[in-house]
Design goal:
Length: 280
């Protein structure tokens, strides 16, 4: 088997085989969240770090106007080809999830696979949340999935998935190589073992992700006053089973809602000739 050290996002076909294999639960969950928690009808949706567009195409087929961005040109091209193949416009663009502006507001945004942790600094994380808040119409939602770091020992530091699509088989293995809690960095290694009738390939990627305890994430959200937490769920995506987040929680889907704009009350001005009784 040939081994290649590479960015997995440069291989969108294999990446999508793993992460796009079973997204029905996420799709159903998103639609239920839109109906239950948005303070406006959800018609336009946006996905920062959209990758291969596995959920965008399903939402487009359900009647939503969709768009997304991603830093990886190969992933964006794959996403746009998929949208066009299914009869929808190519609305994904190459862009930074920590620095974007949409041409018009959307009713909801979502990122369910913890891509948020790729933002390596507090400043970039805040910038991302500010960009999302600016892009949302009042009462709109941001559905954000994240792997939190529990204060105690984690339940698992490695995961394995496997999938087959026709003659393509991919086995993905994720392993934590170590965590620096003080610097809030976790090093992980991900491998894809790819099998086709003509090729055996192992792709190996290592990356550094930012860590968040439940308290650290809440403090970050408090610094972004435009968004408020309205519900929390686990990665089971069961709309009927919200969870309570504590310092032992690991996998969380935060449902955030944009606060309404504060109403401006006109300042009272004393009429001409009327006594001004305000205290001095």
């Amino acid at each position: 088997m040939q081994t290649v050290r590479a960015r997995l996002y440069d291989y969108p076909k294999y990446y999508d085989a793993i992460f796009g294999a079973d997204c029905k639960a996420e799709f159903d969950f998103l639609r239920a969240v839109f109906r239950r928690y948005a303070k406006r009808p959800v018609r336009r949706v946006f996905e920062p770090a959209c990758g291969t567009g596995r959920l965008l195409v399903k939402l487009a087929a359900a009647g939503y106007a969709v768009s997304g961005n991603d830093l990886n040109p190969a992933a964006v091209a794959y996403c746009n080809r998929r949208l066009v193949r299914h009869g929808f416009p190519a609305t994904a663009s190459v862009g930074d999830m920590a620095g974007f502006r949409l041409a018009r507001p959307v009713d909801a945004a979502f990122n369910t696979v913890s891509s948020f942790r790729h933002l390596e600094s507090e400043a970039k994380a805040r910038s991302h949340l500010d960009c999302v808040a600016t892009s949302l119409a009042p009462g709109g939602l941001y559905v954000l999935g994240i792997h939190l770091t529990p204060l105690g020992r984690r339940d698992c530091d490695r995961e394995t998935w496997s999938v087959r699509r026709g003659r393509l088989a991919v086995v993905s293995r994720l392993r934590s190589l170590g965590m620096d809690r003080r610097r809030r960095r976790e090093r992980i290694r991900v491998t894809f073992d790819v099998s086709t009738p003509s090729r055996q390939l192992r792709l190996v990627d290592e990356m550094t992700l930012r860590t968040y305890t439940a308290e650290q994430f809440c403090r970050l959200l408090e610094a972004t006053s435009a968004l408020e937490i309205v519900a929390t769920f686990d990665f089971g995506y069961d709309i009927g089973r919200p969870i309570r987040v504590d310092d032992r929680t690991e996998d969380v889907v935060y449902v955030l809602r944009k606060r309404p704009r504060p109403s401006r009350r006109p300042t009272a001005v004393p009429s001409a000739g009327a006594p001004d009784n305000r205290p001095v």
